[in-house]
Design a protein that fits this description.
Length: 609
């Protein structure tokens, strides 16, 4: 209902609702929210002057809607969705089956506001702008939407995401200049972004708009904000920001610029920065290399080990965001391992875990040995934080062949329990995401749903915005529709995870069977190329591309890429490529190809075998 009145199947395929009066009947019943609408009321709502036979026409519309909405209903079986009751009809739809109802539910939770607003496709009940029965409901939903936009902006301001809040609110006040709360939030976002002049200009613009277009004076809230901005009132800046600024100034004043403690402190700062979102993750990666280089220049292996090993930021994707940096970090870790004094077990384990993490996707047996040694050391030392870090490294080395989802599930289960017992929130999130991926690979989507929901709750409660980016991809995979994948890709853009983002949408659509050759396949191009060439009718080139296709990298998409090889090999009758794909895929029998990524699927491995 949030746009033109439309219906889809559970698989995302459109349902033909015939003419405008069929859609009007459906919309009118949804407005009634499950209550019975008498046939006479439907007649009056559909026609200003009902024609002869109007009641029969309504019954015909209802019969057609039933066939469309419940196509598999057996003959003479009572309808379960559009039911006859007493003098009329009622729609018994589930709470999540109507976008307007789902929007209302989601918009009550701050962490779901963005998802709720994403349901809108245009004005509510757009097909029926002047129908009296739709006017009140459309106005109510529109007001809820406007308030949700403002609540989301307020949440972003409080979370420090001033740039997105400003962009959304600027468009919002342009379209709805009477919304005083929106003007107030826009000015506050600008002020907190250190744009005091722009904030005051917005408040002047608000006064002009309200006076010129509506003949109104601004309310007291806008006046108070302007006064507070002019005198730089302390309460305009969150208490946490004030404490941070004060502590940072004291640290800068008291701790000597050359003090080694500054490097330890810097890594702690980078670790927190990395989990705040796209810009923070990119900045943390950039400064991390500089911190390691500075530590090595001081010639203190223990300090260098701390600087390298303290960056224990959880990672759930076995493809590096910055391969050059990863090689540099591994090189520094190897050099530091050789220089560490005997007995530095914990420092050694952290360096080994770092090596395992940074050599993700490379099928390096030494890296797998490093991960196993780090886990064993952490268990012996009974150090929960170190064990969580080491298990993350072991997870990154758990893709060296197809079919290892059960092992990853066990790692995720241990990590979730360990982190939950010891309050290691970011690792509890990681454990949930690993289990979401692994349960998907094993076909247990109910279990995967539970872990995705738990990860979302933790992400919302602890301000970890990247969690929702990953779980949105999981839900797009479950929906299995191109629009859902494109929406998830838009959310991923700018999230600071190029190793995840690059080529993923193109690969997801190809696996779905709806390839878009205009998209960049990035690192997945060698495995997509034979199928794309076949689609263009370039069979000879497709054969050459298939012959040259390399072994997929050791990551969560290994099975899906082998399945693309199998598809092309079958179409081309290439027995050698088929045997090669079968040998690789056999250990994954009974699993879902690609679903170990929690982001896309090429279907059951058994279908290919």
């Amino acid at each position: 209902m949030l746009g033109p009145v439309t219906a889809w199947t559970a698989a995302g395929d459109p349902i033909a609702l015939k003419g405008p009066r069929h859609r009007a009947v459906l919309a009118r019943l949804i407005v009634a929210r499950g209550r019975v609408v008498p046939v006479g009321h439907l007649v009056d709502d559909l026609w200003p002057v009902p024609p002869e036979g109007a009641i029969s026409a309504v019954r015909t519309f209802v019969a057609a809607l039933r066939r469309a909405l419940e196509p598999d209903r057996a003959p003479r079986t009572p309808p379960a969705l559009l039911v006859t009751e007493g003098p009329g009809y009622a729609l018994r739809a589930a709470a999540d089956a109507v976008d307007a109802w789902r929007f209302e539910r989601l918009s009550t939770a701050p962490e779901h506001l963005e998802q709720a607003l994403g349901l809108w496709r245009g004005p509510a009940y757009a097909d029926f702008p002047d129908e009296p029965w739709a006017v009140a409901e459309r106005a109510r939903l529109t007001e809820l939407r406007l308030r949700a936009v403002e609540l989301l902006a307020e949440a972003r301001i409080e979370g420090g995401d001033h740039a997105r809040a400003v962009a959304d609110l600027d468009a919002h006040v342009t379209e709805h200049p009477w919304r005083e709360e929106a003007w107030r939030l826009l000015a506050l976002a600008l002020y907190r972004a250190d744009r005091q002049g722009d904030a005051l200009a917005v408040l002047r613009r608000a006064r002009e708009q309200l006076a010129d277009r509506l003949g109104l004076d601004p309310g007291p809230a806008l006046g108070r904000l302007e006064s507070d901005i002019l005198r730089r009132a302390e309460h305009l800046v969150p208490a946490a920001a004030s404490v941070w600024a004060s502590a940072a100034a004291d640290y800068d004043r008291i701790v000597a610029a050359s003090a080694r403690a500054r490097l330890d402190s810097t890594v702690g700062l980078l670790r927190g920065l990395a989990v705040t979102g796209g810009g923070g993750l990119e900045a943390a990666r950039r400064h991390r290399t500089a911190a390691i280089e500075a530590a090595e220049q001081l010639g203190d292996p223990a300090l260098t080990a701390r600087v390298i090993g303290a960056y224990d930021v959880p990672a759930s994707w076995p493809r590096s965001d910055d391969p050059a940096q990863a090689r540099a970090v591994v090189g520094a870790a190897v050099r530091t391992l050789a220089a560490l004094p005997a007995g530095a077990s914990a420092a050694r384990a952290r360096l080994l875990a770092t090596i395992a993490l940074e050599t993700r996707g490379e099928r390096d047996p030494d890296a797998l040995d490093s991960a196993r040694e780090a886990v064993a050391t952490a268990r012996r030392l009974d150090d929960p934080a170190l064990l969580a870090f080491a298990l993350n490294g072991l997870f990154m080395q758990s893709c060296h062949r197809c079919g290892l989802a059960p092992e990853r599930d066990a790692i995720g289960a241990e990590l979730t329990a360990l982190a939950g017992r010891h309050g290691l929130v970011t690792y509890e999130v990681l454990g949930r995401l690993i289990r979401m991926q692994a349960r998907s690979a094993l076909g247990d989507f109910r279990g995967a749903d539970e872990h995705a929901a738990a990860a979302d709750r933790l992400g919302a409660a602890h301000e970890l915005p990247l969690v929702a980016v990953l779980t949105q991809w999981y839900r797009a995979m479950c929906e299995g529709a191109e629009p859902a994948f494109r929406a998830a890709a838009a959310r991923l853009a700018g999230a600071g995870m190029p190793g995840v983002e690059h080529g993923l949408l193109a690969l997801a659509l190809l696996c779905l069977g709806e390839p878009d050759p205009t998209l960049d396949f990035g690192p997945y191009e060698p495995w997509a190329r034979p199928l794309l060439l076949l689609g263009d009718g370039r069979t000879a080139e497709a054969r050459r591309a298939l012959r040259d296709v390399p072994e997929p990298p050791a990551d969560l998409l290994c099975e899906a890429l082998w399945c693309l090889v199998a598809r092309a090999a079958r179409a081309l009758g290439d027995g050698q490529a088929l045997r090669r794909a079968r040998a690789a895929l056999e250990p994954a029998a009974g699993q879902i190809a690609g679903a170990g990524s929690g982001m896309l699927t090429a279907g059951p491995v058994d279908d290919y075998l």
